[in-house]
Structures are given as C-alpha cells and as structure tokens.
Amino acid sequence: MTDRLTRRSVLQTGAVAGGLALAGCLSGSSDDLNYEVWALDQGTNTGYIYEPGEDEDSFEQVDSIDFGEHQGEVPHMVDFTADYEYAVVACTAGARTIIVRTEDREVVANLETGPSSHFAGISPDEEYIHVDVIGEGTIKRIDADFDEEEFEIVDEIVITEDETVQDHGGDFEGRDPICHQYTQEGYSYHTLGPSYHDGGLVIVDHDDFSVEKVFHGDDDDVPTNCGTIPHPTESKFYTTAGLPAEDPEDGVGEYFVFDTEENEVVERESTGGVDAHGFWYTPDGEELWVLNRQTDDGLILDPETDEVIDEIDDYGRAPDIMWSSPDGEYMFVTLRGPDQQSGSPHAAQGETPGFNVLSIEDREIVTTVEPDPIDDYTEEEIEDGDVLTPDFHGIGVRPIGDYDSEIPNSPPF
Predict the structure, then answer these.
(1) Sheet strands side by side (includes 354-359)
(2) Is a pLDDT exceeding 60 seen at residue 4?
C-alpha cells in the first residue's frame, strides 16, 4: 500500500486556487458510493458501524467493535486517514490509543498513551498521530507508518514544563490538552481544559513538535476548552468554549475565530446557547454547524463571512459531536446517555443514547438511531455504577467510493 493517499498529497496535487474545491473528492458512479457511520458508545466500550438502509432516512447496523476486549475503556473520539483505510480511537479510561484497519475492523495497534487520552489526530502528512492526554497534561507524538502498520510513541510536550509556556507566565497547572486540529500554515491548535475555567490554547509547530504560542484562558481572556476545526482553504481556525451550569443563565456558549497567519483571535461570539461543543462542515463547505450541549440547540455559520446564517432549534437531548454524510444529505449527532462517562451532568445527561440524523436541508431531526436501547435497562441498572450502560460521544463517517464534494469529508484540509 505504498501509494496510499495522504492529506498532504491531496493538497499538493489538486488544490483549486481561490475556491473550496479540493482534490480527493472526485465523482464516481452512484452504484459505487456508500458510507459508514462509526458511532462510539463510551458507556459500553463498543463501536457501532451503520450504513444507509433501503428505506428513506433509515440506517442498518452492519458491524461492531468491542474496544473493551483491547482494554479500550471509554472509546471517546475517532479520526481517519485521508483514504479512510484506518481509524484512530482515543480511549480515556483505557489510557490508550487504538488503531483499527477499517475494511476488516482489525485492531493493528494498541498504544498506552496515558490517562484520559481524549483525542488522537492524524497529522496532514500522516507521518504522526498527536494525542491530547488530559490526565498527564501532555501532547503525545506517535510515529506512524500506516503502510507497514507500525506505530511508536516518540515524543511528548508537557504543558507545564514547556519553555514557551513558562516564558508566557501564568498558572497552567490543570489546564490540560483537550482537542486539536491542523492549520494551513503547519500548526496544530490544542484547546485546554477540561473546564471553561481551565481553558486556553496551545499552538504547536507540528513539523518540529514545539510550542509556538500559548494563550492563558484567564490572563489572555481566551478560555476556549473544546471543539477545534480549521477553515478548509483560508487562514482561519475555529474553537468553542463552553460552561454548563445548573441554572442555564449562568452558563456560557461561545466560539472563537483565529487568524492562523498571525495566530491571533479575530472574533469571539456567542453560540446562542449553553455549553458550546461540537463543530462540523457541510460537504459543500458553505455551512459550519455548531451545537450547544446543555441547551440542545446551535448555530450555522457562513465560513466565508463568519456570520450566523441560520439556527438549529433542536439537535436532540444532550448532543455532543457531529459529522456530515459525504452526499450532503445528513448531519449525524451523538446523544449522551443518562449515566454519562464524561462532561458535566448539567449538560451531558441524555435520554436516548445513540445518534440523531438531521436533514441538512430542513434542519430537522429525521431519525434517531439507538443501537442499544436504554429502555432495555432498568432504573436500578442505570444507577448501578458496576453495570455498563450506553453513552455515546464520538462519531465519524467513512465514505466508500469517491464522492463529488467540494471539501474532504474530514479535516485536516
């Protein structure tokens, strides 16, 4: 597999100047096109895989992965290689990162990356995987050879010990890496948290794996603590900041826009709700959806102007992460369970663990998918800490075939 497609080769060989059309999104016969929805149930340590069903707005389970068999407790987030041949899953309670070959669902690597390994993201050249490790306050670097299926932890950044962080000043104890993505300029933006009060941002030069710049949530007034996504073609980057509260009036939902050439904040706006969390683009690159986990609502931004162009009234109870279908028809949104494994109980306690399917055109929920219905559990089982009950968090979509879309189905771009 020495001719595997990487994100960097996509950008080098086919970027269309001045527009959102990027190579790697070529048209194919509709008979050859399909996709899989990978939904992570961190409550039962299971990854469920669905495909579109024969009926309209229906989805059928085609496979599952027991991450618990690999000590992958609480599989939290998923990322894919550019060709979608491999999935990388960070497991918080398992303190590890698991790499899966997607075609046959085989685990090809299992690395102990540290307690509360929260997100593992593949670098644009696919030579490395960087892992945000909350429990150690570190960013781990994994040398990745996907062709040979060989992986090794080779370096780490300890936030509180880093020279750039120390030169900045301020107390960074307890401000730990949460999530990240990659910019057009060769940096990765890592939000800090987990709480809004622990927020901030670390910018890493991912070529030499060094901290370029840091923002302290309080001292620099940049308390971003959750979602990260780059603009597909421009020098912009988006993050979210969320604070749930027993009284929603005391909560926070914000998004930040950064200029990635200057590494500076250029906008800070309200998300119109409480506990801003997940982001995702529509495949035409014309809409950026953002959700609020506590108030179950959100906004749609125009990535060209960063103006609000629409609102989502209802994502479902306790939404978390989302990902679009490559045909532009649906937005998939995970729903938390009543016994949540992460996040504040004010924000993250759900009712129907699984994922909602929203029509991108209509902005409405068309289907709720519950792989492991909560109604099959008694109240006693749900309240019993020794009984594993469903609680969905991470989600990803794996295209099968070459879709004719304006931007790739997942960052980095």
Answers:
(1) 319-324, 330-335, 354-359, 365-369
(2) no
Q: Would you list the domain boundaries of the chain?
A: 7-400
Task: Give the integer Cα–Cα distance in Å for 167 and 56.
Answer: 57
What would the two tokens of residue 187 be? 């940096």
Question: pLDDT-based confidence at 165, cuts 50/70/90?
Answer: very high
Q: Is the Cβ–Cβ distance between 175 and 198 less than 8 Å?
A: yes
pTM of the predicted model as reported, rounded to 2 decimal places: 0.93
Give CA–CA dist 151/118, Å, rounded.
Answer: 18
Name the β-bridge partners of 256: 239, 268
356: β partners? 333, 368
Sign of CA dihedral 35, 64, 102, 128: positive
Q: How far is CA 129 from CA 91, 108, 110, 144, in A?
A: 14, 14, 13, 6
Q: Which of 400, 399, 328 is nearest to 358 (CA)?
A: 328
Question: Could you report the per-residue pLDDT of 357-390, keeping only the tens digit for each?
Answer: 999 999 999 999 999 999 999 999 999 989 999 9
> What is the CATH T-level fold of the domain 7-400, as seen in this structure?
Methylamine Dehydrogenase; Chain H (2.130.10)
Sign of the Cα torsion 404, 407, 409, 413 reads: positive
How crowded is the C-beta side of 77, counted as CA atoms within 13 Å? 27
